[in-house]
Design brief:
Oligomer: single chain
Largest sheet: none
Strand content: under 5%
Helix content: over 70%
Shape: elongated
Structural class: mainly alpha
Distance between the termini: 211 Å
Number of helices: 14
């Protein structure tokens, strides 16, 4: 019995062992199956990761990448929509960084900055401390332009203009002034010719004499006064001595101061006789060619001058008769 029991035990043990072996086999099988599944998962994950890496490398981004960055901000979304991919945004960021580092982009002056902050900001941005310190090398500033240029530089400094901007402002002013002066010179010449043509027609044969009389009158003034008178301008910008009325006024004044100037005698001739002879010649023209006299404004002006001169010197009476002859007859 004991022997049988032993056999039974042995069988039980064997059974147990068999079961254990069988269980181990199942476990091994399960483990193998799990290992197989794990390997497959790893392979799939590896395959997926590789695909994502390749997609990113090829510039493939999620279709909604712009919305993800902007969120619900419509303005930001419109701004981001300008870029084709995040890579473009990165390139823009690097470009801005490089420009900041090089000094190409400047920081803005803080609002309500204090004087010391303004001074520091100007120094960092290459703006001089004072308006007169702007470098205008190569730009010629004439004496008459200095006040205007100083005003421009002060305004430029108040507005924190860079040196290049200040130079451009002054250069623009110089260009405008040159154009204005060129236009004025051309206009002056046009008006001068027009005035002389008008007076030449009116004065006729006395034109040159009257012009010389005006110059003679002006020569009595100091040079500085003479230059100032010639540089004077009327309210409309016309040069004073380009005005026919002013020239006629000076000619009349010259005749008033020197009545004998209306006489143009031959060298060594009798001034009174020359004036009288010219006076008589014009009287004859009036009698014989009245139409010609009426058309000749210069002749009429000359006749008036002769009458004034002869009356003032008691050579003719108020009726125009020669007084000298009457005295001789008496």
């Amino acid at each position: 019995m004991a022997e049988a029991a032993t056999d039974t035990k042995t069988d039980a043990t064997t059974t147990t062992a068999t079961t254990t072996v069988a269980d181990k086999g199942a476990t091994s099988t399960t483990t193998a199956t799990s290992a197989t599944k794990t390997d497959a998962t790893k392979t799939a994950a590896a395959t997926t990761t590789t695909a994502d890496d390749k997609g990113a490398a090829n510039g493939v981004w999620p279709e909604d990448w712009q919305q993800r960055i902007a969120g619900s901000d419509e303005k930001e979304l419109k701004q981001i929509a300008r870029y084709a991919s995040p890579a473009d945004i990165w390139k823009k960021a690097r470009s801005l960084e490089a420009r900041l580092s090089s000094g190409e982009l400047k920081t803005a002056l803080p609002k309500d900055a204090k004087p010391e902050e303004i001074a520091a900001w100007r120094k960092d941005n290459g703006i001089p401390e004072k308006p007169e310190a702007y470098d205008l090398k190569g730009i010629k500033i004439d004496k008459e332009d200095k006040a205007a240029v100083d005003y421009i530089l002060k305004s430029a400094h108040d507005a924190n203009f860079s040196v290049d901007q200040a130079r451009a402002a002054v250069g623009t002013y110089k260009d405008i002034e040159k154009q204005r002066l060129d236009a004025r010179v051309a206009k002056d010449e046009e008006q001068r010719i027009s005035a002389l043509d008008s007076l030449n027609q009116e004065w006729g044969t006395t034109f040159r004499r009257n012009v010389n009389m005006i110059e003679g009158l002006l020569s009595k003034f100091p040079e500085s006064v003479r230059d100032a008178m010639k540089a004077a301008r009327l309210p409309d910008g016309t040069a004073a001595f380009n005005s026919p009325d002013i020239l006629k006024g000076f000619a009349a004044l010259a005749l008033e101061l020197n009545p004998a100037a209306i006489i143009v005698p031959a060298a060594g001739g009798d001034l009174g006789k020359s004036a009288m002879e010219e006076y008589k010649d014009i009287q004859k023209m009036i009698r014989e060619d009245r139409r010609g006299y009426d058309r000749d404004a210069g002749k009429q002006a000359r006749f008036t001058q002769l009458i004034e001169y002869l009356r003032k010197n008691d050579l003719i009476d108020d009726a125009g008769n020669e007084i000298v002859q009457r005295k001789k007859a008496a």
